[in-house]
Amino acid sequence: MQARSIQFAIGIALLACTILATRVYEVDAPLWRLLQGGNLIDSATLHLGGEFAESNLGSQRDPDGSITLRMIAQQYDFVPSCVVVPVQVSVHLRITSADAVHVLTIANTNVAVKAVPGKISDSFFELDHTGEFDLPCREFCGAGHYAMRAHLVVVPQSQFPSLGPAERAVCGAK
Ligand SMILES: [Cu+2]
After folding, report:
1. How many domains, in total, are found in the chain?
2. What is the DSSP secondary structure assignment for residue 37, as one 8-state letter?
């Protein structure tokens, strides 16, 4: 009789632990991330509105003079496919993925940013000379991975404010 009730107590304790552990990972942790300001986003509705709506993509000058650059990674390209930023200005890159995990890199620099579906990744970089850079994907993401790349054009600071939103998001067939 004694042994059975000990077994029963252990069984109840194990069950309680399982429920608690599941709850922590499935409910508490995601809720906590969300309350942290959680860079979470629904990858299925990216294009329908909000921060990553098409009209918000590309680079824009913020009121404090810095640049925010928003991009979406998807199999097998980056949107926009060509972006423009001014030289020697801090660029705040915000990127998310519509599908798989991708890594946006700026060739010949050490900039590499992971783009994960459901999450917004933040990164800051500043380029010290004008010119053009390749932005290849460095995370194998499927059959089209090796052709997945965008382009970055770094222009003199004086030239950037005169570019309209359309020009900042598209810089010709490169
Ligand atoms: Cu990729």
Report:
1. 2
2. T
Q: Could you tell me the distance, in angstroms and rounded to a whole number, from the CA of residue 112 to the centre of ligand 1?
A: 12
| Ion ligand 1, residues whose Cβ is below 5 A away | 102, 137, 141, 148
Residue 168: φ, ψ to 5°: -75, -25
Task: Specify if 77 maps to a domain.
Answer: yes
Distance 149 CA to ligand 1 centre (A): 8
Tell me the pLDDT tens digit for each residue of 3-49.
Answer: 788 888 888 888 887 777 777 666 776 666 666 566 888 888 887 88
Q: pTM, whole model, 2 decimals? A: 0.76
Cα(153) to centroid(ligand 1), Å: 20
Helices (H) and strands (E) in the chain, counts: 3, 10
Give me ligand 1 centre to Cα 75, in Å: 6
Q: How far is the CA of 56 from the centre of ligand 1 (A)?
A: 21
Shared domain check, 59 and 30: no
Cα–Cα distances in Å, from 114 out to 35, 117, 141, 157, 162?
A: 22, 10, 12, 28, 31
